[in-house]
Design a protein that fits this description.
This protein is an alpha/beta fold. 34% of the residues lie in helices and 14% in strands. Strand 3, helix 4 and strand 4 form a beta-alpha-beta unit. It is globular. The protein binds N-carbamoyl-L-aspartate.
Length: 328
Amino acid sequence: MSAPDPTPPAGHPTRRRDLLGIADLGPDVAGGIDEVMELTDSFVEVSRRPIPKVPALRGKTVASLFFEDSTRTRLSFETAAKRLSADTMTFSVSTSSVKKGESLRDTVETIEAMGVDAIVVRHGSSGVPRQVARWADAAVINAGDGWHEHPTQALLDCYTIRQHRDSLAGAHVAIVGDVKHSRVARSNVAAFTALGARVTLVAPPTLLPPNLDGWPVEVSHDLDAVLGETDVCYLLRMQRERMTEALIPTLREYTATYGLTSRRADRLAKGALIMHPGPMNRGVEIAAEVADRPDAVIVDQVRNGVAVRMAVLFLLLGSGTEWGGDGA
Ligand code: NCD
């Protein structure tokens, strides 16, 4: 994946590598993604075995530090760590001493003192995983920070698209919905374009970032105009918990203009994929029945998430043992 950081933070001469954003995959982002994808192929094979477990990370400990709600990302990382035979430690804010006023730094130091090799962090504020990486010797993996990045989601999305078409080069991906508040969109734009895809953001102006300078994307406010020419229609949830003001008139109006209704889904080109990172709000950004169509690969995204996270954990913590063996 990324080249080792040439200047580890002072006091951490043996710091491990981190995955805080897509840029951490190295100066050659496409090459870094390819490396993860190749390893993921092997872990998909492991996941299909009757005993889907290998001893690759035996003796390592992976801690999850989730300051925000999560279903799939958290379970996915924990499953990935367990399938690699790592020990797992789960920290949930609602039942921790954070509720008693403990600071983030003290929390991280407490977890580190127990001897962990990786910390998987989700937080509502952008930049928290980077801050944790400054304090911790353990490898830090960003599981979503504010509106900033969600790199493992982007990797599993790349993998899922590649299962259906050989390459992302030349593919046209429409990312539809609340891009403004979406860390998934930011990581996906970086990953998809690094692999040669053309990306169009489709949203009302209020749901786009105020400044798109430097984003290698096209923008449209007209889903109907873009639909027929997309290879991937990637839908985003309205992230109301991150909104401080009313950005759309009503949900009904949003659905009428930007929702992937059955009628719109019928207009997608043959073979086009429908994707969503979850959690879905059926009936808002995606019609209930559209989410269950065969061309919707939303469940595949979740399934691939485990193997992709196994690959990431292995690349960051790889113990040098044979991981392709017959199971632990
Ligand atoms: C997303 C997240 O939390 O960033 N979900 C996920 O991790 N699969 C998207 C969202 O919250 O809408």
